[in-house]
Amino acid sequence: MARASRVENRARALCIELARVTDSRPMQYRMAQTIAKAVGQDEAAADAAIAHAIEKRWLIGEGKPPYSICLTNDGRAMAASVPGRKRQPGSSAER
Fold this sequence. Notes:
Elements: H1 2-22, E1 30-31, H2 32-38, H3 43-55, E2 59-62, E3 68-71, H4 73-80
Antiparallel strand pairs: 1-3, 2-3
Helix pairs in contact: 1-3, 1-4
């Protein structure tokens, strides 16, 4: 049970960071390992988190294992529902 919640938390962290860097815009792909490093995940943890997020329909992944990820509408909604996550006026997303 603890492992499942750890993977879930890591998947959420990836989605939240992806939402931050893309300013929650739809269909914005980013390199998976860049996002994973930004939230302190190693490759193995990121791969498990990405697989979980894809299963939950929060992410779309390109490649096997996914090297590029994109938030779905559900993923953007989940990230936006996290308390304390507010869009900063005038913030610019990484490109």
